[in-house]
Design goal:
8-stranded parallel β-sheet, alpha/beta, TIM Barrel
């Protein structure tokens, strides 16, 4: 896939899609991986007749158990479809997120481990939000050989903490299993949410639109590349454009960096026909941009925190709506 230097994953999953369009995307080499989150599953479970029919054959009573049966079924199927990619070293990963309500590192670890075991496929990643508890849980999951997708990354500081946690887990795994293949990890850096939130404000200061997300993601990418951990890659997430003035594949093309992954919505993937590898913006160029923000008294840390909290809230709301819909009548 793109000479092994850049991967494009599909940020969507749904039962009928998997058996039709997704198979074609995989077979044609358009994508070589996929991701999911509570919002994606909410739309599928609440609107698709396939899921309503499947529920008739599920004996579980508790809504969360019913959700996990539906979700792990889809994740397992996606993993089966991409198993050839995985065996050939061409990614083939699919991610499933833990319950976003979990606040304790041990609870996150145990749920992640149980979901990974229940699916029973080697090309599954457990997606863990990069909260304080989530970052702690990542280390233990990797130490047990679980592939991890660290998600909801907004800041370079979060990125560093995730690298440290994943690297520690990897070191522990290597001690226990010196000859085994290392668990694979991605650090999912969110991009377009910044520009949706900030572009109008930044434009007043003479700053170019749709640039902060790119520069910020590049800073995080540089942290990952500089760490030189062979089993950890940058993944650019939230790469659907929020502005009608931007091409649908803008964030794919702008972030076509070596040794990176981009997980994109279907409209962005459809728009993306081909692209050229990009060299990341130079560090002094990025610094100049961030210095301009400081001079205009923009509190970046406050923005990072707000977007993380908003992201967690959105996932929790979506998860709650799923569980509410799965209560037995």
């Amino acid at each position: 896939m793109y000479d092994g230097k850049f991967s494009l994953w599909c940020d969507f999953i749904e039962s009928e899609f998997l058996e039709n369009d997704f198979k074609k995307l995989i077979e044609n080499g358009v994508v070589n991986g996929a991701t999911s989150n509570p919002s994606i599953f909410k739309n599928a479970i609440l609107t698709s007749k396939v899921y309503k029919d499947a529920l008739k054959n599920i004996d579980a009573k508790k809504p969360k158990e019913r959700y996990e049966i539906l979700a792990t079924r889809d994740i397992r199927r996606a993993a089966e479809i991409m198993l050839k990619n995985f065996v050939n070293g061409d990614d083939g990963f699919i991610s499933l997120e833990v319950d976003p309500h979990l606040k304790d590192a041990k609870d996150i670890f145990w749920e992640g481990k149980e979901l990974y075991s229940a699916i029973g496929m080697p090309n599954v990643m457990i997606k863990v939000p990069a909260t304080k508890a989530g970052i702690a849980a990542m280390e233990d999951l990797v130490a047990k050989g679980v592939n991890v997708n660290a998600t909801l990354i907004f800041s370079p500081d979060q990125t560093k903490k995730c690298i440290n946690s994943l690297a520690k887990g990897t070191k522990e795994f290597k001690k226990r299993f010196p000859d085994a293949n290392l668990p694979k990890c991605v650090i999912s850096i969110f991009v377009s949410r910044f520009d949706k939130m900030l572009d109008d404000k930044f434009e007043k200061f003479g700053l170019e639109r749709a640039k902060f997300g790119i520069y910020n993601a590049t800073k995080c990418y540089n942290e990952i590349e500089d760490a030189k951990e062979p089993n950890i890659r940058a993944l650019f997430a939230s790469t659907g454009t929020k502005s009608p003035n931007l091409a649908k594949d803008y964030y794919i093309k702008e972030l076509m960096f070596e040794n990176s992954v981009n997980t994109a919505p279907l409209d962005a993937i459809s728009a993306f026909k081909t692209g050229e590898f990009k060299k990341p913006a130079k560090k002094d160029e990025i610094k100049k941009y961030f210095d301009a923000l400081k001079s205009n008294k923009i509190d970046i840390d406050e923005i990072y925190e707000k977007l993380l909290n908003d992201g967690m809230e959105q996932f929790c709301i979506a998860f709650d709506e799923i569980l509410k819909s799965l209560k037995e009548e």
